[in-house]
Design brief:
The complex is a heterodimer. Chain A has three helices and six strands. Chain A has a six-stranded mixed β-sheet. In chain A, a hairpin with a 4-residue loop joins strand 5 and strand 6. Chain B contains three helices and six strands; from the N terminus they run αββααββββ. In chain B, strand 5 and strand 6 form a beta hairpin. Chain B has a four-stranded antiparallel β-sheet with strand order 4-3-6-5. A two-stranded antiparallel ribbon of chain B has the order 1-2. Chain B has one domain. Chain B is of the alpha+beta class. Chain B is rod-shaped and about 105 Å long. Classes of the chains: A alpha+beta, B alpha+beta. At the A-B interface, helix 1, strand 2, strand 5 and strand 6 of A face helix 1, strand 1 and helix 3 of B.
Chain lengths: ~170, ~170
């Protein structure tokens, strides 16, 4: 092979290497971009899942406030909460049987915010707790709710906290 | 055309194709990103709107022990009409409204580190000024407000309506 042919072969090999490198860089960049966009999308859906859980919890007839068969949105009846808490407390099988299909791996807690005084200390009710054995990530959402006391006919301001485990 | 010229033209074409493909990848990435950012904004907006709507709905129903366990909407109405029919342990109903909302927001919105605008607008028919809470102006790093959660409180049978409004600031 003469020198000119050798140089031309070298050029061709060099060009092929550059083209392969460009394609590899392009693919890596594209894959990274796709991954980021999928992660962002997935995190957004998780937020919506948390809100969906909150909406499901606030529409549970076994906990909702009702007066003459009219149900109030975003309102929990304290007597129903107490009764529910007593029934499900420590009974994870019962919680799973009825609520796992809708609530999944999550923790739901209601805390009374106002009025809280020395005479009437802050109350809290855990509605549901199902933590997975291996904990990766968790998303939290809070939703203001009313807490109705039918015995005293009063409404407290409370907060429903949802922790979703993924 | 000799062989060398043909080979050079093919090389040039390959380069043009690669550059075009790179541009296409880049454009597709940029449009996907802006699309996903729009979706993410819609979700954030939905979550903030849920929060503000739930907040005002729960707040107006809340009963105030100092005012004989009357709900906040009745107290806002009494304050706006200046009826002064309700006694709140030595306070006026306007003071009771202000203290109650201050307490609730301190324990919720402030704890959650939200930037927000919370106000009680007593309406055009009322002589009472709009009650704006100290964090009324959106904090630095925010870009305007989301659509507020509004709870109207009619003065019926008197004319006019008061409004409790909460708008979360966009981050």
């Amino acid at each position: 092979m003469n020198k000119k042919a050798q140089i031309q072969l070298g050029e061709s090999i060099f060009v092929v290497i550059i083209i392969v490198l460009l394609i590899v860089f392009g693919l890596v960049f594209y894959a990274q971009a796709q991954k980021e966009s999928i992660d962002a999308e997935s995190s957004g859906f998780d937020d919506l899942d948390t809100i969906a859980i909150a909406q499901y919890a606030t529409s549970l007839v076994e906990l909702q406030c009702s007066l003459q068969e009219v149900q109030y949105p975003n309102c929990f009846d304290i007597t129903k909460l107490e009764a529910f808490h007593r029934v499900v407390q420590g009974n994870t099988e019962l919680e799973k049987e009825f609520y796992f299909s809708q609530l999944g791996n999550a923790k739901l807690n209601i805390t009374e915010i106002y009025p809280v005084t020395i005479a009437q200390p802050q109350r809290s009710w855990q509605l549901y707790d199902n933590q997975p054995t291996t904990l990766a990530e968790q998303a939290q959402a809070t939703l203001p709710v009313s807490l109705y006391n039918p015995i005293e006919d009063t409404y407290s301001f409370g907060v429903l906290t949802i922790i979703q485990y993924r | 055309m000799n062989k060398k010229a043909q080979a050079e033209i093919i090389g040039l074409m390959i380069i043009v194709i690669i550059i075009t493909l790179a541009m296409l990848f880049y454009l597709s990435y940029v449009t996907t990103e802006s699309d996903s950012s729009t979706k993410s904004n819609i979700r954030k907006e939905f979550i903030d709107n849920e929060l503000s709507m739930s907040f005002v709905q729960a707040a107006v129903r809340t009963t105030v022990p100092e005012c004989g366990n009357l709900p906040l909407d009745i107290l806002i109405k009494d304050c706006g009409l200046q009826e002064r029919r309700i006694s709140c342990a030595g306070m006026t109903t306007c003071e009771a409204v202000s203290i109650t909302l201050e307490t609730i927001k301190n324990e919720t919105l402030d704890v959650w580190d939200k930037s927000y605008s919370l106000l009680v607008d007593y309406g055009e028919t009322s002589q009472i000024d709009t009650l704006e809470f100290d964090a009324y102006d959106c904090a630095e790093g925010t870009v305007g407000r989301r659509a507020p959660g509004v709870q109207p409180i009619p003065y019926y049978p008197e004319p006019g309506t008061a409004f409790l409004e909460l708008a979360i600031c966009k981050k």
